[in-house]
Structure formats: C-alpha cells, structure tokens
Amino acid sequence: MSIIAEAQRVIRVEADALYALAGRIDASFQRAVELILAGTGRVVVCGMGKSGLVGQKIASTMASTGTPALFLHPAEGIHGDLGMIMTGDVVIAISNSGETDEMLRILPSIKRIGAYLVAMSGNGNSTLARTSDVFLDVSVREEACPLGLAPTASTTAALAMGDALAVALLVQRGFRAEDFAIFHPGGSLGKKLLLRVEDLMHSGDTVPLVSEDTLMKDALFVISAKGLGVVGVTATDGGLRGVITDGDLRRALEKGYDILGQRAAELMKLNPRRIRRHELAAAALQIMEHHSITSLFVFEDETGCIPCGVIHLHDILRAGIA
User: Fold this and answer.
1) Distance between CA atoms of 91 and 66, rounded to whole angstroms?
2) With the CA atoms of 202, 203, 208 and 213 taken in that order, what torsion angle do they form, in degrees rounded to the nearest 10?
3) Which are the contacts of 285, defined by CB distance < 8 A and separation ≥ 6?
C-alpha cells in the first residue's frame, strides 16, 4: 500500500471511530456532566501511558474553559499523590482495557476518600467500568495501527469524549470569551478581550489639546511635541470641538494654503470619532480601521464632552492587539 493510501486509511478508521462514538452519547454522558456540575471539588483526570497523555490534555482543556481540573498519574498516586484527591472531587479514569493495574490499585482509595468516579473505557465489563459511578463507552471497532497494537483510534476516541465533556460543561456554565481570556492573559485573544482603552491611552499633560483661537504655528508645535500626529481643538468650556491631524496639515500645504497665521478653528475637522475609556482596545482598533484614522480621543462616557485621553494606533499594535 502506498504511503498516501495508508495515511488516508488511518484517517478514515479514526473518523469512523468518532462517528460511532457520537452515536453512543447518551444518558450516561449527561449524568457525567451533571455529576461534575454538582460536585463540590475539582475534576481529577487519571490515565497511564497514552491514556495519560490524553488525560493531561483533557484536564488542561477543562481548566481553561471554566472547570477546575488537574491530572494525576496513577503510578504516582500509589506512592502518595492520592492526597491530591479530595472529598467531592470527580475522578475521570481513562483506560481502554479497564484493567490497567496502576489504575485498579487506586480505585479503593478514591472511593474511601469520597470522590466520584467516571470511567472512560472501551470495555464495559471491565473492573474499572463496574466500579465507576458513571461509565462512558469509548470503545472502537479497530485501531488504525495495522498490527492492532498501538493505541490510535482508541486514544482519538478518548480525546474526543474529553473534549465533548469540556465543551458541554462550558456551555452549561455559561462560559464566555471574556472568561476564556482571563485564563489566557498572555495570548493574543487575552489581550483583545482584557486590555481596555484606559489601559493604553495617553492622559493628563500628554494629551495634545489647543483652544479654537490658537494660531496654527503654535498648534504645530503641540502636534510635534506630543508625538501623536494629532491635536484636539477645544471650546472655552474644555469640550472637544474638532481635531487636526498631521495629514490635514500636509494636504493643506500641498494645496498652497498659508496656514501658519490661521486659527485652529479654521482648519479643524468637526465631530471627531470618539470612544469611551472602559471600552476594549480592540474596539478602538476596529473604529480606526473602519474610518482609516490613527487616533481616537477618549471620554469618560457617551455623553461626556471633555476628553480624558487619547489612544493611538501604535499604542494598540505595540500591545499585541491586531
């Protein structure tokens, strides 16, 4: 068999295993989800060998989607790490055969501690399945390995069942993208959903502002000194009336206008785009991209007229929001 044909066969075997698994999602799956939701502790995932690697991924996925979870290696559990399990925890034990020695040796202690047991196995008649509070059938018709030895389709099925549990729990908890970001503050998603305009904006003396009567030669100095390529033009009450950008100045000079003797009010653009300080920085980026501008003046709320800051495109990009 060619390399390509063999690879395609493996994918088909595993895809068939997942299709069959979907048909076995039943009341037992619902009981497992309800047991975890009602639990007073955490989810502790156990597994040996390849099942252990799958278990680590399941625990990680749950932990990042609102279900407190950790991984316990059964062999380490035999030698003291069972202290990680508490009364009210839900233990998810993964074993395709359901007879893994290290797993069976910790079952009495799990029951004695007062934790619940969800078995994820390919053998419904196994010791693990019969001991469990809930049994999840992850059996497969065949492994993708032509020798029938290497865990392939069976580990894929176990991983998919773990994902199904994690997502079902996520939905039942009403977990939001904003919640996900709290657990991922270092990633681009976390930055998009956590960083707000007030976290990145320039405020106080760094905000470029001039009055309507300011001569343009002086306004030019403010634009240059503040380094944001824009200056806000304010009325006598401090309210923002308009803005002048370095692009506006460049276009006026290209047309031959003598702007230095003009007042800021004569050159400003009225009704500038604005944003509230508590909005997400990603929202500011969206406004800038939509209107092809590079800065926004910031206000306390929708009705405010006196700016409390200004945010520039470069501030957003430096923060890793794109």
Assistant:
1) 17
2) 160
3) 313, 316, 321, 322
- Using CB atoms within 10 Å of the CB of residue 80, give its burial: 0 to 12 exposed, 13 to 18 middle, 19+ buried: exposed
Alpha helices in the chain (DSSP H): 3-22, 27-38, 49-64, 74-78, 101-113, 127-131, 153-173, 177-182, 188-194, 197-200, 216-226, 246-254, 264-267, 281-291, 313-318
Delineate the domains of the chain, giving CATH numbers in brackets. 3-175 (3.40.50.10490), 197-318 (3.10.580.10)
Query: In this predicted structure, what is the pLDDT of residue 190?
Result: 67
Is this structure's pTM higher than 0.90? no
Measured in residues, the chain has a length of: 322
> What are phi and psi for residue 120, nearest 5 degrees?
-115, 100
The predicted-structure confidence for 292-307, as pLDDT tens digits, reads as follows 999 999 999 877 789 9
